[in-house]
Design a protein that fits this description.
The complex is a heterodimer of chains A (266) and B (121).
Chain A lengths: L4 E10 L3 E9 L2 E4 L2 E4 L5 E7 L2 E7 L3 E5 L2 H14 L3 E13 L2 E2 L6 E8 L2 E5 L4 E5 L3 E11 L2 E12 L2 E8 L2 H18 L7 H12 L3 H8 L3 H13 L16 H11 L2
Antiparallel strand pairs in A: 1-2, 1-7, 2-3, 3-4, 5-6, 6-7, 8-9, 8-10, 8-15, 10-11, 11-12, 13-14, 14-15
Chain B lengths: L2 E5 L3 H13 L3 E6 L2 H11 L3 E5 L7 H12 L5 E6 L3 H9 L4 E5 L3 H12 L2
Parallel strand pairs in B: 1-2, 1-3, 3-4, 4-5
Helix pairs in contact in B: 2-3
Classes of the chains: A alpha+beta (266), B alpha/beta (121).
Chain lengths: 266, 121
């Protein structure tokens, strides 16, 4: 049987430098220059930014970075997302049901697929192709929700998306739902940081998530600057937080003090 | 700026909301630890908006919402504040006239956006 060619386009691949090649997409494979990659062997797919350029990164025994013409980027991303190596289940989903704790009023239930790869999962529909790596998954559980006026058991996933905690709801036959919940729970437990947090540390984590600054957190939790620094160190060391800015503490030199003295006499 | 009444049984959550809303320029009219206090404080303080926790001792947020709406101010602007997994209760709250809801954990900009939306209605 001959392969149907869906697309033929000039692209650039990045391997320390940009190289011009041709991309051919058929029913079952991507041909990038001389390399033939079967779609069912692609392990993962991601939008990445290389040197300020929006690219598609394909994972298959290493990583291949492709820069496509702008008008084809989304189309190709979508095609690969729907066809990569994954267990795919027909579902209805609502994503994002909440963003940063606030209900997303413009989200609607969509018909599509829940696709599970070794490194995470995808929520796929004609207009929405969302990749959720397992390290971004916060919790998995089933719950009853009102769907079309009926109480239905759904999978509730909380995950991080653009630094926001987002919840997504998945609806499918109950046997599939239970299987997906079990699978994702196991995957989640495997990746969960092994750390027991104290009450203060949990509060600090919540406050950092809420976007509060150092001084506000000190004030709310009722700890000193040194104590809070120690808590921060523990959260950073355990992989639950990362340092984005180091604060400077200063005191005035005699010249500075003299300047303040002058200013106060103005 | 709008006056907010914060209702939550945990001091930590009240402090957090107070910090976020005060920082955004809202006046904090008061803080209540349960639904019963919330109804009484609403009557005396007449806030522009209330952030109302749902699960609280003595009187739940749902019951407090109902009482505020039926006995104090039918136009009261109440934003329910709930933990993940209590979204079904929120449906009841919306039927009772809650104007919005936020789910814990929340992020400051989203909370501010939601409260501003409700106040500006």
């Amino acid at each position: 049987m001959t392969e149907k060619v869906h697309l033929r386009a000039p692209v650039r691949i990045y391997d320390g430098r940009w190289v011009d090649v041709e991309l051919v997409i058929t029913n079952s494979s991507l041909v990038i220059g001389k390399r033939n990659i079967l779609l069912r062997e692609i392990e993962d797919l991601e939008d990445v930014n290389i040197e300020g350029v929006n690219c598609i990164q394909i994972k298959k025994e290493g990583k291949i970075v492709l820069q496509l013409p702008k008008n084809l980027h989304h189309q190709v991303f979508k095609f690969i997302a729907f066809n990569l190596k994954a267990d795919k289940f027909a579902v209805f989903f609502l994503s994002s049901a909440t963003i940063g704790g606030v209900v997303s009023s413009d989200a609607r239930w969509e018909k599509g697929y829940f696709s599970v790869t070794d490194e995470g999962f995808w929520i796929l529909s004609a207009k929405n192709q969302k990749r959720i790596p397992i390290e971004n998954l916060g919790s998995v559980k089933t719950d009853l929700r009102d769907v079309g006026g009926k109480q239905r058991k759904v999978l509730v996933l909380s995950h991080v998306e653009n630094s926001n905690v987002v919840t997504s709801l998945v609806l499918c036959p109950e046997s599939t739902l239970e299987m997906l919940e079990g699978y994702l729970q196991r995957l989640f437990e495997k990746h969960k940081p092994a750390i027991n947090l104290s009450e203060n540390e949990m509060q600090i984590l919540t406050l950092v998530y809420s976007g509060l600054d150092f001084a506000s957190i000190e004030n709310i939790v009722g700890v000193s600057t040194d104590e809070l620094n120690n808590y921060y160190d523990r959260l950073v060391d355990s992989g639950l937080a990362k340092v984005v800015k180091i604060r400077k503490e200063i005191e005035l030199t005699p010249r500075g003090v003299s300047m303040v003295d002058k200013l106060s006499k103005r | 700026m709008a006056k907010v009444l914060i209702v939550d049984d945990t001091a930590f959550m009240r402090k957090l909301l107070k910090n976020i809303l005060f920082g955004a320029g809202f006046d904090i009219a008061g803080e209540a630890e349960n639904g019963k206090q919330a109804v009484e404080m609403y009557r005396t303080l007449k806030p522009d908006v209330v952030t109302m926790d749902i699960v609280m001792p003595e009187m739940t947020g749902i019951e407090a919402l109902k009482q505020i709406k039926t006995t104090v101010d039918k136009d009261a602007k109440v934003v329910m504040c709930t933990a993940i997994g209590q979204e079904n209760i929120v449906k009841t709250a919306i039927k009772l006239g809650a104007r919005g809801y936020i789910i814990k954990p929340f992020q400051a900009p989203k909370v501010i956006e939601e409260i501003k939306k409700v106040v500006g209605e």
